[in-house]
Amino acid sequence: MTNIPETGRSTRVQTRLVVIQVLVLSLLATLGGRLWYLQIRQGDEYAAEASGNHVQQVVQPAPRGSILDARGVALADNETRLVVSASRTDLLKMKDDGKAVLTKLAGVLGMEPKDVMDKVRLCDAETPQPCWNGSPYQPIPVTDEATPKQALQIRERAEDFPGITAEPMAVRRYAAPGKANTGQVLGYLSPVTDEEIKKAEDTDSPFLRSDQVGRSGLERQYDKALRGKAGVTRYEVDNLGRVIGEAESDPGVPGSNLVTSLDTRVQRVAEYELNEAMKAARKEMDRNTNRLYEADAGAVVVMEAKTGRVVAMASNPTYDPNAWVGGISAKDYKKLTGKESNYPLLNRATQGQAAPGSIFKVVSTSAAVEAGYDFNGGYDCSSSYSVGGQVFKNFESASYGSIDLGRALELSCDTVYYRLAHQEWKKDGGMNPKNPNDYFYEAAHEFGLGEKTGIDLPNEVSGRVPDRQWKQDYWEANKDAWCKTGKKDGSYVEKLAYEGCLEGNKMRAGDAINYSIGQGDTLVTPIQMATIYAAISNGGTLYDPSIGKAIVSPDGKDVQAIAPQAHGKLPISKATLAQMDDALAGVATRGTAAWRFEGWPQDEIPMHAKTGTAEVHGKQTTSWFATYTDDYAIVMTISQGGTGSGASGPAVRNIYDALYGVSDDGKIDTKKALLPKPQAKLPTIKADGTIPAPKISKDIVKDLLPDEKASPEEEYAPIDEQGQAATTPTQNGDNRDTRRHRRRGGARGRGRGRTSGSGSRRART
Predict the structure, then answer these.
(1) Model confidence pLDDT, tens digit, residues 537-585
(2) What stretch of H or E contains 119?
(3) 61: closest CA among 192, 247, 235?
(4) Is 673 exposed, middle or buried (0-12, 13-18, 19+ CB in 10 A)?
(5) Is the CB of residue 512 less than 8 Å from the CB of residue 439?
């Protein structure tokens, strides 16, 4: 008999064996069930997904549509260039993150290694330009200016340049035909970001990683139409990446073309005249500050009066949008965004805000009539107007006695409007109103001020009407800061802060007085004022300014016309509008702008104008010049440029001369006229969708100026009190140049004393 227990026969052991057997069988059953589910029940689905893992996409970017002027001249199109790109995904697989390859590439391209490496790094909040703000999985362009020799070096030595490609690609081109830059209006492109791709996934216009999108101007406004749809070809590949078949393809669709209302020739003239006017202003002495005018920025708008379509829009300082093509350099980016360059990316026509000065008086005149004042009544145009110890002077203390509102517009008499605004302020209850009518403020809103015009350009600003609601909101936002810094007996700024703390939400008499002549806290944009003066010309209709005229499909079969849209009517009766129209014609013939329109054929082409000089605390005066004919409205402004007729007047006159073919002696030569009537029809569209463009000279300005022209500086030579050009060379008395000099007076030219109203910007009473 043995002492070894019969453990194998114990109940405990048998139970354990049974449990283990059950667990094993359960696991086998579970595994079998899972295999059945994956291979039988979901087999087809997972097979399709597995097949998809071996599909590679090849994207063929769609050619972006062209942006054309009203006659079919290309302002923005595409051209084929040799583009060298780097795959960030491939570079990051290397031990040194591709530094050696990029350094070698820089040597071939004649670039600095740092510049190449900066271009392929990703943008984030801490990474300055240049950097790549597109998808990290998309090839990143290093340069689009590679030579055939450089491209061959890269392609023939592919083993030395892994992750680098060199191939011809269609890239954006901003042609500047006839030297018409049109930078701020056209805008520019940059790569789509991952965030934008995700956001557009469920829309009817999704992005691909290879897409370039518009970032400003027309490129952004009409991006969807211009971009088209890229083609995608899908290839089946094996585990080694070899193509074993084509899965499916989505054909690409080229972008549509955008026909605009711009005229390249007029655009070039507008840009040139604005630039030359600013250059001339910088040579003029500001007698208020005893230094030269800075003339640091400006804008001009040429608009069709009866439709609101923009024929030309120039902003200065400007930039070349080609700088963004292929990725912007650090130097160019700093230049475009730095304070020293005064932010040339801004479109001053739609984004530049300033006090309007006396061109605002058409609003005040309308308000006065609405308030019950007779347009033909007698109003004292005294040399000054005093309220509570504060003296508000007429410009250069001129006095013209009793005049009507029409004559007040012609002479730009400030004191007439001071009195009217002050009387209405008192009628409304002064500092403690109960139910104020606020005719002057309501009129501004009805004229469309304080709101965007609706122009088809992004990021338009609304300006400002400093009415009671604005004052209340502004006071609530600034009260704490004013109370903290204000001093009763401190500096001018400290005193203003002190008053603002106590009663900054109340409308003072000085506020109403300054407002009546376009001073104080009022802000407008050039496009707003062009819209207003175009409405006065066309009988009272306020149109949405527009640049897009039609979207044309690549094959030319689908043409979507963009019709003019109105957003309101001027709050003026037909009788008052006619009287105001006569007065503004008087400004051009016998008023403050008359010396700028000497010799103008008024009987054949009636001219209307209003000058403005806006004073801004701490800065030099802003020049405004607003005009219109039956066909066009033109508004120009120059920041810190001097008086309205002095600084902007000559340039506006020359734009009209170019439009209508008017010579200095008033004769009209229709053969030399660029656009005597607005372009109504679209350009010819051929059966294949192409839009032929007329020939255009290299520089239309050189064609317009006389053969024996003076230098640009002499063209804008200031005139002395006798009306003779200060630097005019000896010439025949009948020579056209001499007459041009006589008209192109600088900011100190004859007639300055009647240019505009003024007044203390922040006067308090």
Answers:
(1) 999 999 999 999 999 999 999 999 999 999 999 999 999 999 999 999 9
(2) helix 113-120
(3) 192
(4) middle
(5) no
